[in-house]
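Q: My labmate handed me this sequence with no annotations at all. I'd like to see what the chain might look like in three dimensions before we decide whether it's worth expressing. Could you predict it?
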Amino acid sequence: MKIGAPKEIFEGENRVAMTPDSATQLIKLGHTCVIESGAGAKAGFSDATYEKAGVEVVKTAKALFDAADVVVKVRGPEATEAKLLKSGQTLISFFWPAQNAELLDQIAKQGATVVAMDMVPRISRAQKMDALSSMANIAGYRAVMEAGNNFGRFFTGQVTAAGKVPPAKVLIVGAGVAGLAAIGTATSLGAIVYAFDVRPEVSEQIESMGANFVFLDFEDKQDGAATGGYAAPSSPEFREKQLAKFRELAPEMDIVITTALIPGRPAPKLWTEDMVHMMKPGSVIVDLAAERGGNCDLTVMDQKIVSENGVTVVGYTDFPSRMAAQASTLYSTNIRHMLTDLTPKKDGVIDHNMGDDVIRGATVTHEGAVTYPPPPPKIAAIAAAKPKEKVKELTPEERRAKETAEFKQQTRNQVGLLVGGGALILLAGLFAPASFMQHFIVFVLACFVGFQVIWNVSHSLHTPLMAITNAISSIIILGALMQIGSGSFLVILLGAASVLMAGINIFGGFMVTRRMLAMFQKS
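A: Here is what I predict for the chain of 523 residues:
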């Protein structure tokens, strides 16, 4: 099949759906590639680079649509582009079928198949094709860069001869892919990062990245998780509690990045006008949900405004396009993985298997029919989070009483062990000869001391401890060395074998101990 990528005609769109590297991989699948002249120029890919990769370059979009069996795009088709699609042709691009019902019907009547990259189900097997996550990752990173560009101070705190600079405080609202990318970027720049999300299972992800999870104490069980990898809408009661928490945080925050968005729904208003007025002059708000109305009341789509109290509100919707080379590389890789699944035999023939969950979920028109909405995926994207039990903080009196009880229990155990051991030694002494008892008592005492030592060692050190114990216990090598001088061939043979095995124990024990302890040391 011939895979073609036209030039994006949407104003301000700099990305391209096929890069020279992705074209090389598609050729390995048995396909041939064609691209419209200048399609990759804004992303830094010249026509000559494509030709060198074996891609045919055509001059016009019409020539490309006429030549290609599969058309790959970034943005959904404009009306003029949709008319160029013909029966049996496949289009792979972002499409947003819920918002483009008329265009969907038109293309279905023309007999073309549409694979919407925004409809790829969020299941583990489809992660390599999840273009929404790829672009959200870039948007989260770029949002922090854009905030830094409009923020008048350092992210990281500094103590200099000229004075002390406090670190910036950053709040990320929504810890999806974009939110986590923003958390990672802001943390690496040295800011103090706070993050909030209605899904309880992401708190550990937030804290593992060095941010502080904004805990919302809400009496009713509120689990914002939903299948499909997105948060579910919150109840009115939860929303009021949430807004109250944000009002509490607003005066302290220097930068706020909002990412809360559910596909197919207007963006929830989470940062109200009064919160903006509570913020310090020079603060920055970056609204990644601006395309769907914005999470902030003052957001203006595709514009940057400054509020009356000097807070900058950034409402750009083209963050991935502002990093066109990186975005094109990731998106073209998502497209390539989708075409890999559509070409299972790697023979250049598309096999549109509607029995495959991923292909079926992403296909919105096929064989003249509208196939949107797809059936729900058989596997839920997010497992239900188990409620965590709150650890009760003990008072000083309760902590002291607990420590006393633990000490008494430990004392009782040790005394009981000594009494029991003494009784067993006395019992053995009634029947065993005196020469045996001397060695037996030493053996028992050694076991007791060893038990007490090992019992109090941290679990993480058990392996190196056992290794060094093996090395020390190999003092039996002395007995083997003494026997090697014997006149008996059999005794010499056994002594040599004993020396070999004991030597392995000694050197191996010290080597393992050294390597294990090195794991706990900073280089």
